[in-house]
Specification:
Blueprint: H1 4-30, E1 48-50, E2 60-62, E3 70-76, H2 81-96, E4 102-108, H3 113-122, E5 130-131, H4 136-141, E6 149-153, E7 159-164, H5 172-181
Parallel strand pairs: 3-4, 4-5
Antiparallel strand pairs: 1-2, 3-6, 6-7
């Protein structure tokens, strides 16, 4: 038969273990975490940016102005090899979706507008780019991990897909998938 001293040690051990476990559970639950990456099913964070290039006359663009359309929000950079490889396909996508309820918003995370102009000229890119040099939109709002990353945002402002990495945007199966997401007229 165990003596009362051994029983007391056993009780104290389990009480201490329980208190310690509750402390760690409380700490984990109450810990403030940074918001995670925006993913499918979430409302797309709204933002306003200006086109930095002269041919756009500094026109402001607000994401919510494109409600009612499928929005192709694409983060890229001129120094990113997959972005360079993807540029011709994005131009083909622009042409294929012309006249549809589809809005392309390419956002460069390059620092200088001149760098974007040079990229556009070198790779025959005609799609105007927005500039997010401080990455307040790319990393601040959308929490991208690196370019290229694309968010397909439905007509109601809800993210339908988040795609990390390059895509063959002019591939017929990709075009068919995008067309299936277009809002009905």
């Amino acid at each position: 038969m165990p003596n009362s001293h051994d029983q007391m040690k056993t009780i104290m051990f389990f009480v201490s273990a329980g208190v310690l476990a509750m402390f760690f559970v409380y700490r984990q639950v109450s810990q403030v975490r940074p918001p995670s990456v925006i993913s499918a099913g979430q409302k797309a964070p709204d933002f306003t940016l200006k086109f930095p290039l002269k041919n756009q006359h500094g026109k402001s663009v607000k994401l919510s102005d494109y409600r009612g359309k499928l929005v192709f929000l694409h983060f890229w950079a001129s120094w990113c090899p997959p972005c360079v490889a993807e540029a011709p396909d994005i131009e083909k996508l622009k042409n294929a979706m012309n006249g549809r309820p589809f809005q392309m918003l390419p956002i460069s995370i390059d620092i200088e507008a001149d760098t974007v102009r040079e990229f556009d000229k070198r790779y025959d890119v005609t799609l105007p780019a927005l500039l997010d040099p401080g990455q307040q939109i790319a990393r601040g709002l959308y929490k991208i991990t690196g370019p290229p990353e694309t968010f397909l945002i439905g007509a109601d402002g809800i993210v339908l897909r988040h795609i990390v990495g390059p895509v063959a945007w002019s591939d017929p199966s990709v075009l068919a998938s995008l067309e299936s997401m277009l809002p009905e007229s």
